[in-house]
Amino acid sequence: MNFEEWDKWYEEILKDFGFSREDDERTASVLNKLLGNYGSIDIEDLVNNLHHENAAIHNFKRDKSTIKSFMVFGAGPSLKKDINYIKSRCNIEDPEDYIIIAADGATTGLLEEKIVPDIIVTDLDGKIEDLMLANDLRSFFVLHAHGNNFDQILKYTEKIHKVLGTTQSKPFSNLYNFGGFTDGDRAVFLAVALNAKKIVLAGMDFGKIVSKYSRPDIKDEAALADETKQKKLQYAEKLIDWVKENKNIEIINLSKQ
């Protein structure tokens, strides 16, 4: 999604949620400066490094142009069910043939199953110690700036390596905007930007229930989402539907099966 198309969605989201473009831009400016100081990668670096990492881990050679299949893991209540389904289905196609993208808190659920994502799309509201562990193990970070995570960006950016920065306002300098609002649908738009031909979604329920992976502060495994979260999930589903309608990409949502 180009920025002109995204900006229409963005204006609607700002109005609907009462968010401030100025606050988003303020956090983006800080993230951009920090990445300039501590270093970041660009989209070509990400593609090249993904190819290198997968070849080293899985002991096979594959031209980077053939990386076309992605698994995107959201932090919904179906996450563990979907992970177990994938692990039990050798014939779903070898997971080694997929680039694995975790949406923020889904990282915790994947690590519990001894799966290290290739990429983590995050605004740093998941379980920080697990995000950092995955980054230390090998996960690339796609770190997102918005008006509500200014403090987290200041605190953690210098501690993260292999990071590509994104903003939900106009992209500039070290920051990209591939489209998307929540971590989950932004992970899908990242896959689109990486020339995906197939995207398997897991832990993407888009319902009224949130899991502990999405909200680490809740006491139970799952709880009723507040009104704001429910509305965010509605936007996430609509944005992924936009991808289905406008891109020649096969999208399979295991959570809906």
3D structure, described in words:
The chain contains nine helices and ten strands. About 4% of the residues have low confidence. The chain is an alpha/beta fold and 257 residues long. It has one domain. It catalyses: 6-hydroxymethyl-7,8-dihydropterin + ATP = (7,8-dihydropterin-6-yl)methyl diphosphate + AMP + H(+). Pathway: Cofactor biosynthesis; 5,6,7,8-tetrahydromethanopterin biosynthesis. InterPro entries: HMPDK_MptE (IPR027510), MptE-like (IPR002826), TPK_catalytic_sf (IPR036759).
Which key terms come to mind for this protein?
8-stranded parallel β-sheet; globular; magnesium ion binding; 257 residues; 9 helices; alpha/beta; nucleotide-binding; 16% strand; two-stranded antiparallel sheet; transferase
